[in-house]
Amino acid sequence: MVSIMKISELSHETGATLATIKFYLREGLLHVGERSAPNQATYGEAHVRRIHMIRALTDVGGLSVAEAKRVIDAIDSDLPLTRAFEIAQSAVSEHIDPESVDAEALNTVDSAIAGWGCGPEDPGRLAAARVVMNFRRAGQGADSGWFARYAEAARLVAEADLDLVESRSGLAAKAETVVVGTVLGDALFAALRRSAQAASTVRRYGDPGRK
Amino acid sequence: MVSIMKISELSHETGATLATIKFYLREGLLHVGERSAPNQATYGEAHVRRIHMIRALTDVGGLSVAEAKRVIDAIDSDLPLTRAFEIAQSAVSEHIDPESVDAEALNTVDSAIAGWGCGPEDPGRLAAARVVMNFRRAGQGADSGWFARYAEAARLVAEADLDLVESRSGLAAKAETVVVGTVLGDALFAALRRSAQAASTVRRYGDPGRK
């Protein structure tokens, strides 16, 4: 694999257009390359990775460039991991007004996440309560068993996320994994849930294609 | 709770504007009310539930009205549950071109979901492989342990989903739960994962607010 390249090669390697790369450089999302001539710079593998990370944030995570910048800045600034997680999470989470969720929904969530030590303003708690409200309004009862099983699975996934982060060496690499994992983890889980549902449905109800 | 209401009361009860309700009626997303006078119809709890379901599909699931219609039609047409799942899933999933994912990413996914019996065109499998590719490109190694733990959690959640569906009486109610659960389940899991990450991060690394 090429490890030192011109901007045109960086474009070819990543699939990002020259205009996009120059935009990332201008906005400070991408570190400037090493100057090799008055009007030329060279780039390396770190630039390739960073471009793919930006794309993951914007294309998969749906972040705006300004939000991606905030998350990237968190990686580059050696913040404590707890803060890096907070910033990555808040970037990919909708802000929920605590007043917009009702006490019944909050109670359902609090029962499911009892013992986690989440504060009343925890964004995940509020977002989960909003889903519970939508679920109830769509005529689906408050199935505390279903919520509790989701919470248990979420706990397992979060532990896997944290173990993955711990396996990285150095704060910058850990923060990168926090950011990429937070954004791509949602998409990964949703995809695997689809496959698992398909597998379980066929096992329980049979394959409609074979009827 | 009011169980028979005029369209204005239906609007008040659901928060949907009169224009929106008339649009849903015209597009066939909502069953017409019972005619009570030449120019008046009455609506019931089923209409309230249906409006909230449409909103869950469009606002939370991000479906277009045309996609929501396709999903709603699946509920109204007594399809086998396997088909209802397929339709709900395909509505909330991006279509992935099998040619766009590489063999290495597919292998990673196949190892994680071994024994599930998913076919090569399974949309969840392809979507998961795309995430694996994005993950690798963003400089994150192929962490088969992380993927496997996600797969195991997804299996638990899918079983919870199917148990929830089975708890409903009648095919129409089951299909409603399939649709609502498929769409809202992603949002619920993502929210709970945020809370679980926050809880695990504080437990492992301490609370930055208390430093």
* Rg calculated over all Cα atoms of chain A: 21 Å
Percent helix of chain A, as a range, is 55-70%
Largest interface: A-B, 89 and 89 residues
Amount of beta strand of chain A:
under 5%
Classify the oligomer. homodimer
Side-by-side strand order of the widest sheet of chain A: 1-2
Question: How far is the first residue's CA from the last residue's CA of chain A?
Answer: 50 Å
Please give the domain count of chain A.
2
- The count of β-strands of chain A is 2
Unreliable stretches of chain A, pLDDT < 50, 5 or more residues? none
SSE order of chain A:
HHEEHHHHHHH
Largest sheet of chain A: 2 strands, antiparallel
Helix-strand category of chain A? mainly alpha
How large is the count of helical segments of chain A? 9
Mean pLDDT of chain A: 88
What's the shape of chain A? elongated
Describe this entry's structure for a reader:
The structure is a homodimer of 211-residue chains. The first copy, chain A, has 211 residues and is mainly α. Chain A is 67% helix and 3% strand. The first copy, chain A, has a two-stranded antiparallel sheet with strand order 1-2. The longest helix of chain A has 35 residues. Chain A is elongated and about 65 Å long. The model of chain A has no long low-confidence stretch (mean pLDDT 88). At the A-B interface, helix 3, helix 5, helix 7, helix 8 and helix 9 of A face helix 3, helix 5, helix 7, helix 8 and helix 9 of B.
